[in-house]
Amino acid sequence: MDIEWIKSLVAQKESHTLEFKKSTTQLKAAFETLCAFLNEQGGIVLIGVTDSGKIAGQDVTDNTRQEIARELNKIEPPAQITVDYVLTDNGKHVIVLQATAGSYVPHVYDGRPFQRNQSTTIKMAQHRYEQLLVKRGQLNYAWDELPAADYGIDSLDHEEIRRTIRQGIEANRISEKALTEEITDILKRLRLLRNGRLTNAAVVLFAKDVQPNYPQCHVKMARFKGTSKTGEFIDNQSLYGNAFLILSEASAFIKRHLSIASFYQEDRLERIDKPALPTLAIREGLINAICHRDYANRSSSISIAIYDDRLEIWNYGLLPSELTIKDLKGKHESHPRNKLIAEIFYNRGLIEKWGTGTTKMIDICKADDIPAPEFEEYSGGLSVTFAMEPARATTKVEEAFGPLTAIQQEIIEILTTQGSLSPSHIITKLKAPIPERTLRYHLLTLKKLGIVGTHGHTKATRWFIIDLEKK
User: Fold this and answer.
1) Which helix or strand (DSSP H or E) is residue 7 part of?
2) I need a surface site. Which of 240, 266, 318, 321 has the fewest CB within 10 A?
């Protein structure tokens, strides 16, 4: 580091990472800027250079060095700042203060945090400071490892916990000894109970009621008519619950709204029902969203949107800095955001290895002659989109009318075997009840196709199968 290096820096002019101060009379302002550099990508302050870029230098005494040392002690947490004194052509010195991006952001100077706005240093907003504090708190412990707020063991679904043990034993990932253990001991075994307190992971995985303290344990599900969100809703649901409830209900919602093609193979007597998308790939996408999302944001959620031509699963939380979208399509290391949550899914046999979820989705789709899913980051989260290519339908009804959804096929089967029924009676016959508005949509769709008809009016309306042989 010499005067030529200083000159090359000065030629770059002040920027987001470089600032000039005329003398140590501006030392306080210099350290405010260093604090801002620590909170971002690092930077350099040159003392002895005017705003216009003139290298004036200044006298450096023992008192100068002591003054700088005192200001360094006002940076908290302690940070990596180097101090150098470069001799100028006029026999004075330029003081070089260089800050490396901090490892324990946010840093404060004299009790206050600062940030850069282009080439200007400003006080950091309180909201931003609080966000960075939360992030710093996760350096040693991830969010799912932190103590849960206002939840005790009785707040958890004990049957779901024991189901985890049974499935873990079946998958050879948990010792059979756990079958005889008390819930408290099981939670300790699973590292979900520490120092007598539940972790956030325990609540996400097993809470009987996640409201009001964990509103982020939420999934939004919608089936849109058409290929965009501007179309009308066919079905729209919102659910708060633990991870396994969300997985179950989301899987059922998707199954209800995926078209089903039925066909026969020469070597089988039974009819084969094939959904538009492979269920294993969809399940993998849902599990990835549950395991890897950023739960620290209380206003976040998982979103599932089904359109005529695709299915999209979105979860809040960007990829870790070590991964890119391209990496997801090939072999890559795992960087789980929520290790405790992911470990429980692994113990239950729901995932095989960390870091293989995205490639497994791709392989399943390719094996099923479905386009590989597409991954995208937007709105602070990650999405996986499956393009729909419904299989060819060969059942009698579908040969005449085209592919039908699973719920539509179930309605046809109910009306065929039960005769004419009211909408409320049809709902009671379904394997999984649906809102009456959703049922009426499917019934009207089948009516337009000429598959079902009605007799009666208003509350007395009955629905029946039209005799296709007469058509």
Assistant:
1) helix 3-11
2) 266
